[in-house]
Amino acid sequence: MAESAYKTRLKNESFTAGISRFFRRNAVAYMFLAPWLIGLFVLTLYPMGYSLWLSFTNYDFTKPANTQWIGLGNYEKMFGSMVGVSQFTALNGQVMTTDPYYIQSLTVTLTYVFTSVPLKLIFALAVAMLLKQKLRGVPFYRAIYYIPTLLGGSVAIAVLWRKLFEKDGLVNGILGTLGFHNLPGWITSPQYALGTLVLLSVWQFGSSMIIFLAGLKQIPEEFYEAASVDGATPVRQFFSITLPLLSPVILFNLVIQIIGAFQAFTQAYIIGGGKGGVLNSTLFYTLYLYIQGWTYHEMGYASAMAWILLLIIGVITALVFRSSGLWVSYGVGE
Amino acid sequence: MGSVNNVKSTTVRHAFTHLFIIALGVIMIYPVIWMIFSSFKPNNTIFSDPGLIPKALTIDNYITGWQGYAGTTFGTFFANSLLICTVAIVGNLISCTMAAYAFARLKFTGSGFWFAVMLLTLMLPAHVTLVPRYILFNTFGWVGTYLPILVPKFLATDAFFVFLLVQFIRGLPTEVEEAAIIDGCSKVGVFLRVIIPLSVPALVTTALFTFLWTWDDFFNQLLYLTSPDTYTVSRALRTFVGDAGAVANWGGALAMATLSIVPAFILFFTLQKYFVQGISTTGLKG
Amino acid sequence: MRKIRSITLMALLTLLIAAYSLPTLAQTATEAATETAASLPAYTGAPATLRFSWWGNDDRAKITQQVIDLFEQSYPTITVKGEPDGGTSDHFQILDTQLAASNAPDIIQFGGNWPDYQQYLEPLNSYLGKQLLINTPEEFDQTALIPATASDGNLYAVSLGTNTLVLAYDKTMIEAAGVDLPKDNMTWDELIAYGKELKAKLPDGVAPFVDNSTNQANYLSYFYRQEGTPLWTSDDGGKSYATVDTGKKWLQMWADMRADGLIPDADTTYTYTETGPDSSALVAGKAAIDLVWSNQVAAYQAAMTDTLGMTTLPAGGKPAYAIQMSQYLGINKASQNKEAAALFVNFFVTSPAAGAILQTNRGVPSSPVVRQAIADQATPTDALVYHVYDAVADRTIPQDPNLPNDQEFVNGLNQIGQQVAYGQSSVDKAAQDLQALIQQMETK
Predict the structure, then answer these.
(1) Reported confidence tier of residue C28, pLDDT bands at 50, 70, 90
(2) Which one of A167, A279, A294 has the shortest CB-CB distance to C268?
(3) Distance (Å, whole) CA A234 – CA A245
(4) List of chain C residues whose C-beta atoms are within 8 Å of the C-beta of residue A296
């Protein structure tokens, strides 16, 4: 009895001593880290846990008192229409209708990501190759090409874009003078509307271009000289020297652009007038999440949508990294 | 093939490249140029006169647009935008630099773990925390004020900047710091007197992108600003254009849209090298 | 002392209005203002600041601001901050956020959807006869109070006037085509036949009608009423009689009109949101006849050079025409200055001076005094509105309430209409979807 009490005391002592040692060693570092840690817990981790909980409820911010646990109801609502279910009863007895537009919003976003990102990177790389040459005025050109990126995220440009691609807009005006007539209203055609948004995204290729330029400068000039001597054509040089050596940079750009593209919102919101455009052809995932949460007050459902988005981004990013072993080379090629 | 010929063909090739780059560049920025020129056209000729150069020049659009709406002028909207951008810059500079210094230079228990967490938050879509943050700020009574936009900046929630500054500080030579410590300088002292002065380029990049992102940010402003006298430029532009994407005063809308991009232009052309540095080291999006 | 100050104010006011509006209007407004200065209820509270939010275009914002200025002249200790929100969907989305954050304006403009907000609204009964002088027939049409009274017997909002749906037509264009102007109270078949006649004479690229099938719920709701299957009624505390059949008839009729070129192609249709004159195929000259709220016709006319005419919606089936309350003002239950807010609402709906500025922008005023004051300024457009009121007199009914979750319903309706227009859905399928949507909105 006495012995065990002693042991406990000793344990406690060393425990408190341990704590104070921990504090002595780490106090300064954690002081510097404090704002970030508070932000992490209060504004990131706690909200994440909270939104996970919300995703299993029918939370409505105008009627918080009516919140009920509905189990997987929100998730069934999302994916039910895929298996042909139109109505089901949630855990709280509430009859819920499956969402006819969720899959559409997912399709729109995936289409947007898988077209805009590759196109943007190809274009950025092409322009970077052009500007890589030892020409006079490259900094100036680089600045010009960066302007769309500089302004592209703004409301002003989204407004302008809508006006450009309307049926009576500037683009059709210019094409009209070139002899093309009976052109569609690009923004109001279900088959072209998303294309105009992809174009808007590709147009903002500036930061990818600058990253590629920095990457291209790292490739030693001797490699190209040696290849030239061996009689390799510029095309062959591009595929056997430039691409492999640039692959880490491509991976980096790819990941950043994918994550960004999944979260695109402002342009779709402004161009669609706060809605998903004609036939929901520009119903971006994030836009739909916003409409569900803030227009229809379905915040529980919006939270569930957010978690599925997180999962999708996580899986796709992981796949990109996994596949990188096959195509990214960190050494000097061949 | 003689060397003179060779030089000549190189010159010709270069001329063509220049021409090509310029032509492509003009196409690229044509929409922006069109917007700027059109903002000086009389309101009723903006779409009927597709040419670039206005047939009649007017600044009426700027006068009518500036009046804004709800009795609030664009003067107020610009002042609001500048205010929140300034505070956001201060917040990010303080909080991100502190966190970055800890990660880059200080040895502490759990440093590897926290750094990994920080990298993971880089990839976290903002939408996951959106709803709870809104509820949280609403509980605090902050909706309708600038606090939901500004307070996170003082808590280093823009992990991109922490990452940027960590990379930069790690690249600094350690000799000066070691000398300062030998001279009896504390870690706080080293941070204030050595790290901060040496990090000025990265700090400028941080300030620059904080400005741009806050200026262009639309989503948070849409959620949290509820009355016109608190609106920022991008929030005001949206209401100015209307939910139908249709305005009677297109001239005014284009004029204000043009004004709204002026700050970004000025910063970009005066501080271009910081932009390039920031983007190429960490892939910051513009 | 007080009198002297109010005279000075009136002088200032005259200058102000003279500077901003037509001379005749200024004169009338000043006269009217002088008349009523004495009859306004006094404000006894501490200096107060009110927030007032509404939707509408820039012109409405301008005249509303003029009324606010006038109110502030009459009540120097009350300040009013206007918050115009653009379109209705923006207005209600912003309002929802504000209400949830307990940060909503003191005075809020509603449409027929005010019952969705009853929990946030101040019952106005105790203000009647004190701040709100609207409780005698001499002051205010008492029938206008009925649709603003809830089942608990309390009055929750004050009507800003009446309006109704009309078919506005481009008179200049139809005359140029050499076709007779449309007659009142045509049947649907006659209207469609008229459209075909028009189609043959109109220039290429101009359709007889705007596609009004699914851009709002009102036309469809009118048709459902005519068919004896109303979309939403107050029976049993809220009941729908809608059927798939009626939906099918409605959608089929518009699909046929599209096939016959009586409405523009889908692409042109959706270039315009049809939420107001700023985005309308009628104003843009793409179609000759459009469904418009009677109080909005003046704004459409102002945006066009062609002259507009007006006729009734088609007749047929059961009576369905509602002369209804256009909009309402409600007072936020959480307001700190409810007395001042009530005075503002009172001023807005009963002051002839305010009426002289607002005219019929928000509908035909419910106050006989205001109607009298603006009678001699009635525009040709106003005369046309009164003409429609007369023409449909024998087929009017009390207005039906809105289907709950109005915003979500209209969004869903848009999608269903687009699916048919772009050939992605058959009329049968769309009618099923529409019925499912209606059921979903009522059970939600």
Answers:
(1) very low
(2) A167
(3) 15
(4) 405, 407-408
